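Sample A.
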Amino acid sequence: MSSPIKSYELCFYMIVAILLSHSLLFDNYSVKCQETSTTTTAVDDYEDNNDSDNDSDNNTTHESSDRFVDLITDEVIDFVAQKPPNETDDNVLLVWHQLINDLSDRLWDKILPFVAKSQHQITNISQDCTGSLFKTILSFKKQELWAVKFMDSMGKLPSGFLEGTVTSFGNVDECLDIDVPDDGYDEAFHGKYCWLYLRPELPRKPDIVRHNQQIFNLSGTPAEGTVFEHISEVFSGIYSVGAIRQGICIPSNCRRDDITPFLVQFTKPYKLRPQLSIKCMSKHELTELNTHQIVSISLLTVMTFLLIIGSLSYICLNDGKRKLYTKLVQCWSVQQNYKQLTASPSKSSRHMSAIHGIRVLTIVWTTINHNYTFGGFYKIQWIYNSLIQVRKIPESLLFQLVFNAWALVETFFFISGLLAIYIMLPMLEKRRGKVNIIVLVLHRLIRVIPSICGIMAINFLWPIVTTGPILIDDSTDVYLSQSCRNNWWHNILLINNWFAPDDICLINTWYLSADFQLFLCAILIIYAFYWNVRLGLILNGVVLVISIMGSAFTTYYYHLYPTLLNVHTINLDYVEHHLRYGYFWTFHHLGPYCCGIFIGYFLLNTPNNHQLPKSKMIIPWIVSPFICLSVIFCAYYWNQGVEPSRLSSILYSSLSRTIWCMGLSWITYICCIGSGGIVNKILSHPWFIPLSRLSFGVYLSHMVVIFIIFFTKKSTTDWTHFYFITTGMITIILSHILAAILYFLFEAPFANLEKLIFYGHHSHKKDADDNDHRVVNQLDINMFNNKNHNNNFTIGYNQRNLVPVLKITKM
């Protein structure tokens, strides 16, 4: 039975040695690792001679620390070898206990001098923290469970470090569950989880860090071909992730300033710049609600109360003539709004329901793209096990459908332009140009801003319900919390697309600002169509060309790449630069918007149920998808590492958006005139209709769902497509649930309220003019379900200008 006992002993002591080798105090013990057992008298002599030996200690620190793990392991093996080999299974527990005590005594005698030295040199530590640290050290010597948990819960050197794994979470829950009661001498304290950032000294960062680029030039040096060369190549990504992260567990009464001096002294021999995270996690610290959270709770409470009252009112007071205040309350009725959500559209000769399918498929594709981008590449790629793996993924050909899907958002701009002219131009003809522009703008704001307020309220509140170590990371806190606390009003004013990404509250909302600004420009263009069609066509074309030239100039002036490429996964500073100057600004998207205006005008002037010969549709059906796919797959070779030229960057960045919409134009046009065949049947399927009506809420909410899924993780994860596809499916489902909540609390009630305000309680007036006032958001085309089909659009000719103009004749 002796062999099993020695095996148990050796295994246990190796575990203890690993624990001690990664703990703060036991690593620093290496300053005196050559000393023999020390008594209290020896400690006093050491402190007296500390000043004179300080320089020599610093010189020997690095050498002795390198031998620390070997020394511990040798002592374990030697000590186990001294144990008698004739123990029985009944004595295993006694042997373990004896081994723990003996090894702890040996290690304690060698650690104590360093503890005394650190306490002598660091004088600005608070008294409470000092007591907690010494109590933890003494309790560890006594093998008390809570003290061992402090060491065990800390992050260690992660496995896969040579492959680019730069984060070790440790055990978050184990740390937070530590609770040390008051023993009469020291105050009670508990575990507090913080991030430790270790920043090695690096050469000056180049403008763009390339994949496989070495941090150091090791050619012709002894380090060439060694593991150091591999590390120099792998850790070029450290410029983006910022630091090596380790989760540490400290006593709750220790402040950041108390622990930092210990970290500095500990890492000084290794030339690391340690820093503790500004925020830490603790179960016992009550988080006070800030003003934004209080307002958010109040807003959601009021909306929920109105929802309940409106629903009850609809049940109890829905018979007979309703008074105005009853109609106001019933704007929040779940029953009424549910009927609007699921109502079947009336038959339309224009077959505009195909737009429902385009919207749903686009929002699903966009959600998958953002799931990969903001959950995998942007900001938090340090939570994955291998930076090398993260860099290889975008090199796949098929993955371009996700990685280079930035043109998807142009589909929404295209639809927005199409619907703007499709609704406004007949309205101008009917009213002979007398349309209140202020009412149009207010209509747009009322439809958009309440939902934006709702999603910002949810974004303020979800960190109260769930949390995780990623949320206390310094960079994440700036990205998620500070941007909303400081710049929420940018979203309300719809101007946030002109600011840096880190200054945008909910980064995806930049699109709503850009779309609103394009809508203001579209009013002038559509008026030009009303005054003179030739003038409208020319003006729309000129604006499109200006958009292309503006994108080309921006790409040249700011030295932008054609799009965001694989190389930028380790250059996040460039990603923010590109998003701000080459993507968010409004004029970049004028081209797709103008394409939508062209197609909308052509739809208005195409006869009902116009059928094109099948022979003439073959080539367009081949060319259109090819055009769209070429925009996506064109970046494949660039993602392989081929450096794009300046000219190719300018051409792609300026033309790709408009080319994408040119390919989309044919599909949209042919389906909307009823000649789309099987494609039109799929896109017009009734299942798409309610999902399409929720797509505005899905776009708003999907980013919050991504934050909740990815930013509450407590351990590193393998970067796999299966992981992102499954989380993407969950994101889509939860986003639709959250979109439904926004729909019933904000979107539908305020749409009803707007109709009630503009049309009063005279239903006949409202029914007559409903089609005129419902200028539709690109993500809200429900007007097609209530469209008055008593009008027929035909082509006439203005005798003075000899150009086709839109006329409306009664059926």
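Sample B, a different protein:
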Amino acid sequence: MEGEAVAAVIKVLVQNLIDHSKNEISLIRGLDKEAAKLAGSLDTIQQLLNDAESRTIPGGAVKSWLRKLEDMAFDADNVLDELKYHHLSKQIKPMMPTKPMKQKVLSCFSSFSHTRHPRNIALKIQEINENLESIYKEGAGLGLKETLATNVPTLPTFETDSFTLDPIFIGRDELVSEIVEIINTSTTTNERVVSIFAIVGMGGMGKTTLTRNVFHHPKIKTHFGSHLWVHVSQIFDPIILFKKILKELPFCDQVETESSQDILDNTSFDQVEVQSRQDFQKMTSFVEGEDQSRYNLLKTVSFGQVEVESRQNFVKKNSHDQVEVESRQDILKRLHKALKDKNYLLILDDVWNQDRPKWDDFINSLVGVTSVKGNAIVVTTRNMEVASTMQSLHTHELKGLSHEDSWSIIKAKTFGKEDIPTEFEAIGRKIATRCQGLPLAANVVGGALCNKSEEEWLSIEEKWLSHDEGDRITKILKLSFDNLSLPSLKKCFAYCSLFPKGRRIKIHELIEYWMAEGFLEANGTNEMECLGDKFMKVLLHNSLLQVAQRNDYGNVESCVMHDLVHDLACSISGSSNNREDGSRVRYMIHDEESRIPKEVAKYLRTLMFEGNIYGNKFVDFERLHVLVLADYWCD
């Protein structure tokens, strides 16, 4: 499991302890000092978790440390639950009736005889404090540092460009033509200066590949005078975007300049930084009439390295005597001149921004420097909220490929145009269904199957890809998880791994489970439900959950998780659902008629029981927060 992802979900548990420890422990006189010490220890541990969450940490030592911390955090949470129980039992005991039916129902469950006396709880809190101190020292010894949390997650960047060829493009030719027609018709018939179009879909769904085919379509080439491709990613900065757009324009008279010192500072050992993948490919492609000396220089460019006579000579040839510091006004003047008398198509690929003022700042300036009507911006994004923020004229939600198209991609990757042996085709079609329409998965699995034996194909059909083979899929999908703004939201997502693949989950019941587990921190039940609704919308908009069913009014009633996203959620939840590695299981769906062992039962917090119920079934369950006695939450 990914260390930083697991750290993110443990943070929720630790933060809940920080928020509640003082209040709960203060119920027992004389424990103010221990309460303060526990809160302080947890706060320090939380800062180590911030460091763990911000970077990918290799090795099993940190994973083992995270598991110890998780167990300790759950132990502390259980102690706080016992304190709450003592407090509530004193309040409601006078009101409790002593009726036979009540006793019969309660006999099915634990009698709470395991609950400690308050003095014993005090000793347990002291023990937890000592253990947390030991865990902190171990974490520090592993290189973790106390780090303040950051509001904006830093995501790895997979930069795209308009030049990369896609030799295998299957199943979406008609869709390309449809989108081209919508863009050309809309920009011809309406009076807008700029029309915005959005292509939305989960990671790996093929948004960039589809958009690249639209970008290079002959009708698009003839309809627009300029064709601009800008990779955006997480940071949405209008000035940076304007500069990238300028670099895309081939006849921009002026170029940004640097001082000799700037070039010296940024140039070491004869290396020149190439600012983007798109820039590099533009620079190294042959343009007729290009200055020969520049062309000769670029002939030697290889992944950002330039062979030159000396560092000093390079600076002399590529710098100006004066430093030009461009203001926003200067940049927009150049942009206005470059866009004069020519309409354009601008691709903004991989946009994450949901900040409306930032978008307005960008689009208002762009419209202001645009001289002619009939321009188009196509935005690709994983999040429907991004399309809403940009007020797109037309939004296309990209769906998955058919199983037949997925199989066609696998065939092309493995056998090319050769005939496929019958025994391989039968296995391959089954593998294609496991891709669930995700082009990225079909391409990756096709590459993994290439030059493999029938036995190896059968192994992939049964066990899917190995960790190394599937790593690319996981990294792409995990970007959506990393972008979730709150640790509690990440925990809600990981919790969904409890449900079997393909299971439809009723929305309102899932929110109730989150509430019972303490993932939704708000004042009052209604506010928790509202927060749960917001979390659900975020997960749906980011395609981490998918709509399974709507009611007659169009409201989402149930959701489902894509199988490959489910694999991601399982890797994050890790030991909490795993009964095979000796870990403490916290969440379980039990569909057998056998008794759950006591050593498993005592740690369970969620139990969804689908078998027959026996009289003494739940006597060993000491920590349950969620109990479902039948598979009634969905058909």
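Observation for Sample B: The first strand starts at residue 194 and ends at 200.
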